[in-house]
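Late entry, written up from scratch paper. The run itself happened at the end of the previous shift, but nothing got recorded in the book at the time, so transcribing now.
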Amino acid sequence: MDKFFGLEGPLISFLDKCGRVVILSVLWVICSLPLFTLGASSTALYYSITKTVRKERSSSVREFFKSFGRSFKRSIPFTIIFLVGMFVLYLDTAIWAGKKTKMAFVSMNVCIVLMLILVAFAGFVFPVISRFILGFKDTARFTAFLTFRHLPVSLALVVMAMILAIGTWSFFLNLVYLPGVLCLIASVMIENVLKKYIPKPDEGEEVWYDE
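Output as recorded:
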């Protein structure tokens, strides 16, 4: 019983992780408010959740802002593509939904599918940015490959994005914890994917994500 309630016991460890998830969720919300920083904050959320919550390394706040600054420039083009793409596709969907023709029905569903693909792509691209140093084209090409090569994970990321949207719409304060919780769940699947494409470290070399 003493071990359970001790400073290094499972209860304190669980509460510490819950606290980190809440802090990182709040940081993600605040840093995403300008919208064009959504990609950098999502990259930082994934990186810090994986490193400080799952692997229990370092300070969550420090790692969040370190990743935010490191990925800021590389994430902006993908953030703009995501936001503009979603906006245009949403407008197209709304326009086609108001027309009662077979062509409109097909076009509307094409727009919806493209939106889902874009969400899945975004679900992969920011974790990729957090882990790999690649140029824009290589990042886009690699992320597109992952999105279609690992469809079950892509579908799961879409579902979690929908849960975040619905959860936020139904009760705004869910943003205090929901982004971090969903990112934590998503990181389990995404890490299993990324490990397949990351070279094994040299013998004796310690890499936190390979633990």
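The chain has one domain: 2-198.
(Scratch paper discarded after transcription.)
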